[in-house]
Amino acid sequence: LIFELCNLVCDRLATRIEQQARHFRDFSLASKQ
Questions:
Q1: How far from each other are the two terminal CA atoms of the chain, in whole angstroms?
Q2: Nearest residue to 21 via CA among 31, 33, 11, 13
Q3: Is-above-0.90 flag for pTM?
């Protein structure tokens, strides 16, 4: 049960980090133009 919960949290964090990285990259590209 704890293992399942850990996987769920890790997936959530990975998704959030991925989204933030994408936004940051888009922001950087927009700033350079």
A1: 49
A2: 13
A3: no
